TrEMBL record, chain A:
It comes from Neomesorhizobium albiziae. Residues 38-267 form the Solute-binding protein family 3/N-terminal domain. InterPro entries: Bact_solute-bind_prot3, SBP_3_CS, Solute-binding_3/MltF_N. GO terms for biological process: amino acid transport. This is General L-amino acid transport system substrate-binding protein. Residues 1-26 form the signal peptide. Belongs to the bacterial solute-binding protein 3 family.
UniProtKB/TrEMBL annotation, chain B:
One of its GO terms (biological process) is amino acid transport. It comes from the Bacteria. The keyword DNA damage does not apply. PROSITE patterns: ABC_TM1 (PS50928). Keywords: Cell membrane, Membrane, Transmembrane, Transmembrane helix, Transport. GO terms for cellular component: ATP-binding cassette (ABC) transporter complex. Belongs to the binding-protein-dependent transport system permease family. HisMQ subfamily. One of its GO terms (molecular function) is transmembrane transporter activity. NCBIfam families: HEQRo_perm_3TM. This is General L-amino acid transport system permease protein.
Length: 342, 364
């Protein structure tokens, strides 16, 4: 009761200011995006490898490239995007309220999020999982050997919950040390305040890369949770969800078919009927979704295939230095499996 | 034990006045105990200074690459030069960053001019009414050949400035009205003011910002969104107004009743005596708490990160995650942020002391 009074008060104040902005809007997301001439993509406020602005304020990263692929599919132009920074606590509201068209922000797809938040997830773009990192000097080879360890984490109910579940299963004790700020969390670990640090494995790689001597630290082999990261859209707009899904699958299928940013022109002459359909040479798959028939060509030409995007942002050559692991193609021991283009 | 402590306290109590009079060496070296404490403090200071100087200057890298910094044990200043524009302007388009720079410069100039009591006039007020839309246009673009830059891309120091000063400039009149309303003889107005002030003061700023970004959209019709910068700005204005109202009320109540009575005897009606006699005097008495509130708000604007706005502290923080520099420069970025916040807070504090002196002329 108290809350709603307060909120009404706020709402009343702001309503006046925005009354001019009110316009009936029943259009689909695709129509809205096309009319606006720009895709509005919600990304993280700054995560190495996934979304980070460089010294010139230009965004780059894995999540950013997913946005660029969608913009390429819709406009044939990867620059027609406004990036909106989303806070981890308010990211879903940004999507629900229509402030952003798609949320591409290291977000784990879960049952309750999909069922109760008024959002739909696209395909998993990155298979992550919570892990633990220790100093090599601790001489621990497995998370099962940790007993009575102090573990640093960032706040977040699932992180702590996963640790509690894991340690209950192993029958060992642990002590949770929670930090609000990532820098403090990392420093606490490096200074020996904690025996281990726990986060998503991709994040652990980035913490390790940031240390003065990465070789002194070891990410333990156990993955104690499943964290499939996926882009999200508003619920009940299946056309828009299809566009996001097939933009992602285009990149995955392109890797499978050996189409790269460099050879996509050559592949226009390919004899493979599926490649011809993907690139819009035969059939007009794009028009079924309200896109250009060459949307697949545009994505690969502008952004590249999945392997290129992965290597550029997260791969062995980058600061994160991640191996493909579960994010390899299905025929290569991984989990990536794009449905057929037909 | 207790008697000893008591007698010690008495001794201090007796000595204190005598010592506070002279600031000579005896204050620091008067007794053996004092001498030891003084020397110990000096030694600690010297040690701290030595560590600081060797880190800041002697071992520091002033020019070079991330690799040079990694090899050194001192501060890494090339980091600041490399990331300076990002820290100052965030993700505002690089080629257009002259616009926030100009806007901030104009803004600071206008604030400086407004700080000179001799220039206070209606013209100044009019100047602000003209300036603010101009600054907005300069930042947002979309006219006069300026490229459009949505507010979601504003960031860094201009954003912090804007949230603080636009917030306080709007909150001050609102706060004064609320304070007057709270002292009103009309119960309806008084109760409304008390309710607003107590409700807003009863929750932290971060929860109001959170509410503005989470609850507010739920009240809106489908597809209608309010610019998140506007949401944060309005939340800050409402929050600041409640605090300003209480400070101004203290000033109003500190005034002798005779001021009102004398003004009424002269035949001034409510608005005349309130704004010509009461408010100017009340504001003078509350300059110190008002300025500390302003300084507090300047620093509290960093909380807008909750709605996904990149203010200055948060551009500094995200700049630290640049993979090229990650793990190399951490303290440097925070030191830079601290220095910037300190300079502006200290300027506000100095101006407050100046104002107090200025207004005391004729009183002493």
């Amino acid at each position: 009761m108290k809350i709603s009074v307060r909120a009404c008060r706020l709402a009343a104040g702001v309503l006046l200011l925005c009354s001019t902005a009110i316009a009936a809007q029943a259009a689909t997301t695709l129509e809205t995006v096309k009319a606006r001439g720009k895709l509005i993509c919600g990304v993280s406020m700054g995560t190495t490898g996934f979304a980070l602005a460089d010294a010139q304020g230009k965004f780059a990263g894995f999540d950013v490239d997913v946005c660029r692929a969608i913009a390429s599919a819709v406009f044939g132009d990867p620059t027609k995007i406004d990036f909106v920074l989303t806070n981890i606590n308010t990211r879903f509201q940004s999507l629900q309220s229509g402030e952003i068209d798609v949320l591409s922000r290291q977000t784990t797809m879960t049952y309750s999020r999909e069922a109760s938040l008024g959002i739909d997830f696209g395909p998993t773009v990155f298979y992550d999982g919570q892990g633990l990192m220790v100093a090599k000097s601790l001489e621990v080879a497995s998370a099962k050997d940790l007993d009575g360890a102090a573990i640093c984490t960032l706040p977040g109910t699932t992180t702590a919950q996963n640790l509690a579940d894991f340690f209950r299963a192993t029958g060992k004790k642990f002590e949770l040390v929670v930090f609000e700020n990532p820098d403090e969390n990392n420093n606490a670990f490096f200074s020996g305040r904690c025996d281990a640090v726990s986060s998503d494995r991709s994040d652990l790689a980035s913490i390790r890369a940031a240390s003065k001597s990465p070789n002194d630290y070891l990410v333990l082999p156990e993955t104690i949770s499943k964290e499939p990261l996926a882009p999200a859209v508003r619920q009940n707009d299946s056309n828009w969800r299809d566009i996001v899904s097939w933009s992602v699958w285009t990149m995955m299928a392109a890797e499978e078919k050996g189409i790269t940013q460099a050879n996509v022109e050559e592949k226009l002459k390919s004899e493979d009927p599926e490649v011809q359909r993907m690139l819009g040479i035969t059939d007009e798959l794009g028009t079924m979704l309200g896109l250009d028939k060459a949307f697949g060509y545009n994505i690969i030409k502008n952004v590249g295939n999945y392997a290129e995007v992965f290597d550029r942002n997260l791969g062995e050559q980058t600061a994160l230095g991640l191996s493909r692991g579960p994010n390899a193609q299905w025929n290569n021991g991984g989990l990536l499996y794009a449905p057929p283009f037909r | 034990m207790s008697t000893m402590a008591n007698s010690g306290e008495e001794q201090i109590a007796i000595r204190a006045p005598a010592q506070s009079g002279g600031l000579g060496a005896s204050a620091y070296f008067g007794t053996p105990a004092n001498t030891i404490v003084t020397l110990l403090c000096l030694a600690l200071l010297a040690l701290a200074a030595k560590v600081a100087v060797s880190w800041l200057v002697i071992n520091a890298v002033f020019d070079g690459t991330p690799e040079d910094c990694k090899a050194s044990v001192g501060a890494c200043w090339p980091y600041l030069t490399a990331k300076l524009r990002y820290m100052l302007f965030g993700i505002y388009p690089f080629e257009e960053q002259w616009r926030p720079l100009t806007a901030t410069a104009l803004f600071i100039l206008a604030i400086t001019i407004s700080c000179i009591p001799r220039l206070w006039s209606r013209w100044l007020l009019l100047g602000w009414v003209v300036l603010l839309p101009v600054l907005y246009l300069l930042m947002a673009g979309g006219a006069f050949g300026l490229a459009e830059v949505p507010t979601s891309q504003w960031g860094g120091l201009p954003l912090s400035f804007m949230l603080t000063f636009v917030g306080l400039v709007c909150a001050l009149p609102l706060g004064i009205l609320l304070a007057l309303a709270r002292l009103s003889n009309l119960p309806a107005i008084r109760i409304l003011a008390v309710t607003f002030i107590e409700l807003v003061r009863g929750v932290p700023l971060i929860s109001i910002l959170f509410m503005a970004s989470v609850m507010l959209p739920l009240f809106m019709p489908d597809g209608v969104t309010i610019d998140k910068l506007l949401r944060a700005q309005v939340a800050i204005i409402l929050f600041a107004a409640a605090y300003i109202a209480e400070i101004v009320r203290a000033g109003l109540q500190a005034l002798p009743r005779g001021q009102t009575e004398a003004a009424q005897a002269l035949g001034l009606h409510y608005w005349q005596y309130t704004f010509l006699v009461i408010i100017p005097q009340a504001l003078k008495t509350v300059i110190p708490p008002l300025v500390s509130l302003f300084i507090g708000f300047f620093q509290d604007t960093t909380l807008v990160t909750i709605v996904g706005l990149l203010d200055f502290l948060n551009t500094v923080r995200t700049a630290l995650r640049d993979p090229n520099w990650q793990g190399i420069a951490v303290l440097e970025g925070y030191l830079f942020a601290a220095a910037v916040y300190f300079v502006f807070s200290a300027l506000m504090g100095a101006y407050s002391r100046f104002l107090e002196k200025h207004f005391r002329v004729g009183y002493d």
